[in-house]
Amino acid sequence: MLTKKSRIKDVYANPIGRDIINRMLLQMNINRKAVTNPIVGNLKIMVLPKLLKNQLDEGFVDTLLTLLNTEDETVRSTDEIIPREWWKEAVFYQIYPRSFKDSNGDGIGDLQGIISKLDYIKELGIDAIWLSPIYDSPNDDNGYDIRDYHKIMSDFGTMEDFDKLLTEIHNRGMRLIMDLVVNHTSDEHKWYQQAIHEPDSKYGDYYIFKPQPNNWTSFFSGSAWNYVEERNQYALHLFSKKQMDLNWENEALRHEIHDMVKWWLEKGVDGFRLDVINYISKRKGLPDGNKSIGKLMGYYGVEHYFYGPSLHDYLHELKEKVFMPYNAFSVGETPGAGMEMSKLLTADYRKELDMVFSFDHLETPGHTRYDDYQYDLNYLKSCMVNWMENYGNHCQPSLFYENHDNPRMISKINANQKYRYVLGKLLAVIQLTLRGTPFIYQGQELGMINQCFKTISEIRDVESLNLYDELCNTMKEEEAFSKILTGSRDHARTPMQWSGEQYAGFSTVKPWIMMDEDYKSCNAKLQLQDENSILRFFQKLIALRKEYKVIYYGNVIVSNKKVKDLFTYYRKDENEALYIEINLSTTNKKRTKHPKGRLLLSNYTEDILSSKDRLSFLRPYEANIWAIYP
Ligand code: ISL
Ligand code: CA
Fold first, then answer.
1. Is there an atom of ligand 1 within 6 Å of 141 CB?
2. 551-628 maps to which CATH number?
3. What PANTHER family does this protein map onto (predicted)?
């Protein structure tokens, strides 16, 4: 049992203690050495707030102790052989249906549109498709607010269209992963309607009601509570006012969710991506959030639900009763969960989730998505090295840069068009040659970048629109809009760029969200005809990954760790070996050694350099994959 008198090193030795202190240091952009050096390590934990320049108050230590005394198990490390699984070898492709392909000329992507592009996805080398939500929804948060789990959203088509899509995907030897949004439902879902109109019915306890709100805030701005006149109580919503959090403590509710998931698995779905799944267990009594943590994180109360007391029990139950009987795959979206928590959620012998998405590598320390800064690839290197060396063989990393909630990665790193495609290819080399399961987001394979939204009227995302309104209380509209422009999720939600025709071949009419002129030079049709395009490069890279199985389970041996702007590593097993060398900067980078082997793939196609130069340095953002002798 850890107490205020415990030493910082003992708290840091606790898996949850380490994750939380690392998160605070990341938020404050303080190097871990600040707490890992022996002098500090021997200090009592209660001095930590002072050490961290009083950005955290006394209450933080109490919260920390409450959290870490709920969990003392550490995932045992092993160098046993990694168990083989299809999802450890697969390349996943995420589709945001609303923006993928419109088949009936209403400007909105749909299921028949996806069916018409399955051959394109298959030729890319994809093994499994993750579909963002396609269920009936009033679209307050574009489908992440579900009204009926057993019905297809009318914008996207019918259940017949879905059955056809599933069959066509399976006919091509691919798998389909659905999005499971069960932390909350739409306030129009019949469960919620019955909960507020018949509070004494079994549904009355399906959601989280309180006589008075606490200080928790929503991720989409404002309080996390709606006043419900019908019950003269307040109802919790961590996201939009129309996304009501479910009460997972209610066993009847959990069983209804289990039955719903089984219903889709009976249809032949191969697995699920589980939306904000680490938020489903809230601390008993729903206490106020600690002010200093809230100020630092930007959201109040998060410490009471991002790793709740019954999370593991609920996930273990879901795995045993639902996923295992169908051998279904599961990947959890777990914002805020550190590496140790991720291990406890995914270690194969714990039978909870197969994988998680951790987001710590998407913003450099001290930055949030809405901060205007240039992302440093050396930070990506340090994150990847940390996960490759410390995640362990009981756990499978997920490898991604983009999804429907984040701006385009190329734009975050370097907006100079000159480097656009060579940089996109560099990112692909890292994502598809490290140990882990890659998730490619629609358009990433084309090198799509952020769009030039001109006015707030072109923005569609509830998170951006709410934040804009909030910012306009304290700043001018232009300033508020430029802040939105930096981090808006809409950058990832503009129409897929299929061709140079009008509306990029996405639709025959004006799409539901704007797009700028970029599609005229960046589109799938052009790139399929260009041997050196990034699309062709992704095809070759995925084919290489399937040929060199060392990439799936081989060891990762990183060299030049301390060399800035140079990321080099080996993939080795008893049969074969690869050497990957990458220049993370826009200046020529001296090589520390010349690989002896065969160059398999490079993001530089033309060999303009003399062999001598060829040997001595790497060009800007150059990334090469060599086959070397084991
Ligand atoms: O990054 C985020 C918070 O800092 C958010 O973009 C995101 O809300 C969070 O990662 C959870 O995302 C998921 O749940 C949301 C939905 O809006 C997102 O699209 C989904 O990915 C609520 O369902
Ligand atoms: Ca349509």
1. yes
2. 2.60.40.1180
3. ALPHA-AMYLASE FAMILY MEMBER, OLIGO-1,6-GLUCOSIDASE 1
Fold for the domain defined by 89-184+251-535: TIM Barrel (3.20.20)
pLDDT of residue 610: 58
**Rounded distance between C-alpha atoms, residue 313 and residue 325, angstroms:** 18
Question: Which mutation among 242, 276, 467 tests ligand 1's pocket best, with the greatest number of atoms within 8 A of CB?
Answer: 276
In this prediction, the residues of the chain whose per-residue pLDDT falls under 50 are: none
Q: Cα 482 vs. chain centroid, distance in angstroms?
A: 24
Within 8 A by CB and 6+ apart from 444, the residues are 401, 402, 408, 409, 424
Summarised one tens digit per residue, pLDDT across range 255-299 is: 999 999 999 999 999 999 999 999 999 999 999 999 999 998 899
Measured in Å, residue 508 CA sits from the centre of ligand 2 at 10
Q: How far is CA 482 from CA 371, 457, 478, in A?
A: 10, 13, 6
Q: Would you say 388 and 556 are in contact if contact means Cβ atoms under 8 Å apart?
A: yes
Q: Are 87 and 329 in contact (CB under 8 A)?
A: yes
**Ligand 1, from 186, 187, 275: best to mutate by most atoms within 8 Å of Cβ?**
275
Counting from 1 in the atom list of ligand 1, the atom nearest the Cα of 406 is 6
Alpha-carbon torsion (182, 187, 193, 199), positive or negative? positive
Tokens found for residue 14:
């606790």
Ligand nearest to the CA of 102: 2
Is residue 239 within 6 Å of ligand 1 at its C-beta? yes
In what helix (H) or strand (E) does residue 42 lie, and over which residues does it extend? none
Domain 190-236: CATH architecture, name and number where available:
Alpha-Beta Complex (3.90)
Q: So which residues are the catalytic ones?
A: 275, 333
Greatest alpha-carbon span in the chain: 81
Instruction: Compute the radius of gyration of the chain from its Cα atoms.
Output: 24
What pTM was estimated for this model as a whole?
0.97
Query: What is the per-residue pLDDT across 65-80, written as a single tens digit (0 to 9) for each?
Result: 888 888 778 887 777 8
What is the spatial order of strands in the sheet that 566-572 belongs to?
A: 555-559, 566-572, 577-583, 623-628, 597-602
Q: Which ligand is nearest to the CA of 246?
A: 1
- 3-class SS at 398? strand
The residue type at 79? D
Q: Determine if ligand 1 sits within 6 Å of the CB of residue 441.
A: no
Task: Please give the Cα distance from 490 to 487 (Å, whole number).
Answer: 9
Ligand nearest to the CA of 406: 1
181 lines ligand 1 (CB under 6 A): yes
For atom 4 of ligand 1, the residue with the nearest CA is: 219
The domain limits of the chain are 8-68, 89-184+251-535, 190-236, 551-628
